[in-house]
């Protein structure tokens, strides 16, 4: 199975059904009017979970254990907690400088 790479420009959110933090990440970007790409991973997880997780680990450079898995400009940001810190630092703080 071929898995979709994160976009080289902008945010990419690897998401799955029923993921509360995936929805929160998408809502934050929408509220900030930041465009993003969503890759729904349900099919990947059903058909070939181990291979998909290995793909994510290779792309992120770390072991991905939970969703969302978020990249910006093709670079790994992290899960929701890391994403929130990233947004607060690089987008919210810069609005007031």
From TrEMBL:
<dbReference type="InterPro" id="IPR036249">
    <property type="entry name" value="Thioredoxin-like_sf"/>
</dbReference>
<dbReference type="InterPro" id="IPR002109">
    <property type="entry name" value="Glutaredoxin"/>
</dbReference>
<protein>
    <recommendedName>
        <fullName>Glutaredoxin domain-containing protein</fullName>
    </recommendedName>
</protein>
<dbReference type="Pfam" id="PF00462">
    <property type="entry name" value="Glutaredoxin"/>
</dbReference>
<feature type="domain" description="Glutaredoxin">
    <location>
        <begin position="12"/>
        <end position="77"/>
    </location>
</feature>
């Amino acid at each position: 199975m071929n898995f979709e790479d994160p976009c080289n420009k902008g945010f990419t959110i690897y998401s799955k059904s029923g993921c509360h933090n995936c929805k929160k990440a998408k809502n934050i970007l929408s509220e900030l009017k930041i465009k993003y790409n969503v890759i729904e991973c349900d099919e990947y997880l059903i058909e070939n979970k181990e291979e998909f997780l290995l793909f994510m680990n290779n792309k992120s450079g770390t072991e991905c254990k939970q969703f969302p898995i978020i990249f910006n400009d093709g670079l790994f940001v992290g899960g929701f907690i890391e994403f929130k810190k990233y947004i607060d630092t690089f987008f919210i703080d810069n609005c007031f400088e």
